[in-house]
Amino acid sequence: MPLAKDLESYFAANQNRARDELFDLLRIPSVSARSEHNADTARAADWVANSMRAIGLTATIHPTKGHPIVVGEWRQAKPGAQTVLIYGHYDVQPAEPLELWDSPPFEPTIRDGKIFARGSVDDKGQLYLHIKALEAHLATRGTLPMNVIVLAEGEEEVGSENLEQFIASHEDLLTCDSVVISDSAMFAPGLPSILSSLRGLAYFEINVQGPAGDLHSGSYGGAVMNPAMALARILATMHDADGHIAIPGFYDKVRDWGAKARDEIRALPFDDEHFREETGSPSLFGEKGYSTLERVWMRPTCEVNGLLSGYTGEGAKTVLPAKAMAKVSCRLVPDQTPDEIEKLMRAHVASVSPPGVQVTVTQLHGGRPWRADLDGPLFDAARRALRAAFDKEPVVTGEGGSIPVVGDFQRILGTPVLLVGFGLPGENAHAPNEWMSVENYEKGMRAMAGLWEELGRA
Amino acid sequence: MPLAKDLESYFAANQNRARDELFDLLRIPSVSARSEHNADTARAADWVANSMRAIGLTATIHPTKGHPIVVGEWRQAKPGAQTVLIYGHYDVQPAEPLELWDSPPFEPTIRDGKIFARGSVDDKGQLYLHIKALEAHLATRGTLPMNVIVLAEGEEEVGSENLEQFIASHEDLLTCDSVVISDSAMFAPGLPSILSSLRGLAYFEINVQGPAGDLHSGSYGGAVMNPAMALARILATMHDADGHIAIPGFYDKVRDWGAKARDEIRALPFDDEHFREETGSPSLFGEKGYSTLERVWMRPTCEVNGLLSGYTGEGAKTVLPAKAMAKVSCRLVPDQTPDEIEKLMRAHVASVSPPGVQVTVTQLHGGRPWRADLDGPLFDAARRALRAAFDKEPVVTGEGGSIPVVGDFQRILGTPVLLVGFGLPGENAHAPNEWMSVENYEKGMRAMAGLWEELGRA
């Protein structure tokens, strides 16, 4: 169903203002990683709070140990209405290297239908289109079909270190029926996308200790186990030749994605050769029986992230190293957990460790995988709203990486999370010349206004 | 047969002088690695040349691009006599760290029957006992049973960089029937030893290139080959579980040591647990079917000397590395050659390299293995002379490392090389508190005087 005429008229009439306001926000260099920008980051928080107040929300700036969290609220929906929490972030990545920008990073500029500015797509543009969508409802109708909480944090680019604690200690404030996040990209231009899955992470360090100190490889070589060779032998047992992970029990908890989801992935316009070019690898390689997108989105991995042993400088040094180290991490999929994978990893490494060395496994970092249950009124409403705004059936996508806050929301608040993003491939989110498509900024606010109308109707 | 009485009497009468003269040489800090000691090194060369002249040799100091080579000669033996080349070096290792020396490194001091000084055993004491052995013959009898060339170089501790070239360009000067070198240790106190083998070396760098640059392990992990994992898989194919090297053809050229040599090795007083403690390894490990000494002396190896890939700092970084590097070296035994092993290594790595990466193998360094043919008049004479001097049957030992000059002599001059050393285990050759046993200094010169007498008789 197309967007209601009053909302559409409002968006059309206020198009320039919505863009100008976003430009004001983009001009604030709220770089959370740089303490010299602390005042800018605080200014951005104020700006966002004021923009919420301007459309009729109450807004509170909550200090944290780091940058503040802004929470806007509107709770005047009719009894029985749902409560939706919209999450976004007002901080941005550093802009360096500045010389690679074609226009100044904090002076938004439109070229070729793209708004170039640091933070345009990540995430100021995507946060502000939500505020503009709420404004359209409140300005034209004086009300919203649901209660709404808008949470804008200022530390997403530095690990959201204070967010989990904030959510856990403000459950009453944040209680809701669903969470909506726009901080991702559409699969392709013109193709509205719902992000349905994120992989988790179990990150280990494996240390192999052989001799007490480095030995001369001539005087001792052949009589003691070489710890670097031992490490290589351990790592080599982690996959079979078909790219399956050979750690016993590793796949036991992997939930079947289902034929429908796999069909949807295979129907996406995706070109292996283009992807290969992007990586620069001589050829693609992955688990037998799965396509590239399936390998990245729905299958777990076991990767070496780092190796170090012995002499690594120029030329030849005949050292028999005392020790060897590998950083090894597994990307996880539902229902794997970092703790279970740690147990399996430990047991496997112990079972394949050769004699003559001592091997330790330490878990450095862990995060749970996430997958949306795409059935339910929120997702149905989102599909309809996206279809209406983009005139195209939305696709369901996955993401091989992690967005830890998604798991935090789902776990602490116990609500479904809808990830609907309006970025685009090549948007340079953490690179020079970051941009957001003007069209997606406009259509994104219409899609979200439509979502709330659809949700109110459901 | 015991040493002739005239020689024995001469040694007894001149014992203190032989020691005092050595102390003079030890007081010269001829550290070849330190340019601030260049004058000292030149002074040591002069001192050695003069000590040759003092006993009746002619001596020439040959300049090189580095430190000079001293060549002493005595060619007045009766017609048909053999010509022997004695090799040693007058340069020493740096003495640092000085604070760990119990007496000053360049002020020789006797404690517990040991001469403590930098260079005492490596190699000034072992070089000078040869000069004293020649002196005993010349002083008591006015002649020697053979022609003799004494070559003393000043760059042994910095890689003998100019020696091979000097030998090759002075073949006429250096032509001889045998080479004798005393720059090694006896297997145990009181146990005279002939060093019969040295391992060679083929040193490689293996580079694995995957993606063009480091990738995010979330966004790409699972879809491209991980170069560090690929490297581990390659390295893991190099041995089987029994410690045999699994590179096809690797052992094809390995000469059978023979039952007698193995029996001799097994008869040596050797304690695995003591050796293990020395390494600090949790347990010993090596090729099945061979003892520790056999593994180090007579079997080739394949070792990882270094590993480097991706992120190796503290904590977790989810990088999928673009590349991975291993330094891999093989200790070789006769009749393996570095060039053949390079071919086998290349072919093997190519055959086991997984898809999705490019793998290159570069040889960085190579050296041939060496094994003495222990039959022949020189070795028989050495056995008899050692037995007489130490009142004990000499043992035949091996060495897992390399002494490149041995191969150079044998190859360029085409002569057998006798390695007969008078150091001892624990002598701290390259460490603080280097020492040489007073007893071995005395018995060494008697053994060498006896050797020349035996050789003249043969």
Please provide a brief summary of the model.
By secondary structure, chain A is an alpha+beta fold. In chain A, 37% of the residues lie in helices and 21% in strands.
- Give the radius of gyration of chain A: 25 Å
Question: Count of DSSP helices of chain A?
Answer: 15
Report the end-to-end length of chain A measured between terminal Cα atoms. Answer: 13 Å
At the fold tier of CATH, the topology name of the largest domain in chain A is Aminopeptidase
Name the chain pair with the biggest interface and residue counts per chain. Answer: A-B, 85 and 85 residues
What features would you describe in this structure?
The structure is a homodimer of 458-residue chains. Chain A is α+β, with helices and mostly antiparallel strands. Chain A folds into two domains: 5-198 and 369-457, Zn peptidases (Aminopeptidase); 200-254 and 300-367, Alpha-Beta Plaits (2-Layer Sandwich). Chain A contains 15 helices and 18 strands. In chain A, strands 1, 2, 3, 6, 7, 8, 15, 16 and 17 form a nine-stranded mixed sheet that branches. Chain A has a four-stranded antiparallel sheet with strand order 11-13-9-14, with helices on one face. In chain A, strand 1 and strand 2 (69-74) form a beta hairpin. In chain A, helix 1 packs across helix 4, helix 3 runs parallel beside helix 4 (120-141) and helix 5 (163-169) runs parallel beside helix 14. Chain A starts with a helix and ends with a helix. The model of chain A has no long low-confidence stretch (mean pLDDT 95). Strand 11 (303-310) of chain A pairs antiparallel with strand 11 of chain B.
